[in-house]
Amino acid sequence: MKNSLRTIALMSSVCCLFFSFSNCGSTKTANEEVAEATEVPFVVSDSYFQHWVAGIQEGGKGTKIYFDLESVQPGVTFNTLYFRGKTAKIEYIPESKYTFMADIRTDSDRPDIIMDADPSAEAENRPPITMPFEIPDTHAAFTYTYEGETRVHVLENIKEKEMIAYPSGNPKGDN
Fold it and tell me: Is 90 exceeded by the pLDDT of residue 151?
């Protein structure tokens, strides 16, 4: 009886040890997954960011991140950009051929949170958006969809351009 219990315990331990090591080689970091995406359906020619501030307090402030493409294959949809711990939706700039922009508002670092005794009122709170991986402050990452698959691309060493300070008065001067 003692030998059979020892045998069962030994076999269970060996199985647990075997299964714990079987996943070691299959785990990947986000950087490895991005590096493996060798065929990107677009070519980025330039990327930069620019802080901006409105001329009036209610206008707010933020950072606009731009990236220009030399070419893009049909069927690519740009989704969300991640920059310095914040996110924004990527928008196409129609005046240019292949320029995209994301505007990250920084005037309210903490959104309004509803605190109520009624849980249904608190259900309107949006959960915080977390970055799926860490990147340096000089990089930005964005998600895009191509052929039904969501992928990630990292923009490295984004240049910073001079801040834009929008005027506070009426541009026509007829106040």
Answer: yes
The DSSP code sequence of 15-68 is: HHHHHHHHTGGG---HHHHHHH----SEEEEEEEEEEEE-SSGGG-EEEEEEEE
pLDDT tens-digit map of 33-62? 433 455 899 999 999 999 999 888 777 899
Strand partners for 71: 43
Own/partner long-range contacts of 163-169 (Cβ < 8 Å, ≥24 apart): 163/50, 163/51, 163/52, 163/53, 164/50, 164/51, 164/52, 164/53, 165/52, 165/53, 165/55, 166/52, 166/53, 166/54, 166/55, 166/59, 167/55, 168/55, 168/56, 169/55
What is the spatial distance between Cα 82 and Cα 139, in angstroms, rounded to a whole number?
Answer: 9
What is the per-residue pLDDT across 67-94, written as a single tens digit (0 to 9) for each? Answer: 999 999 999 999 999 999 888 999 999 8
Q: In this predicted model, which residue has the larger pLDDT, 110 or 121?
A: 121
Collapsing DSSP to helix, strand or coil, 138 comes out as coil
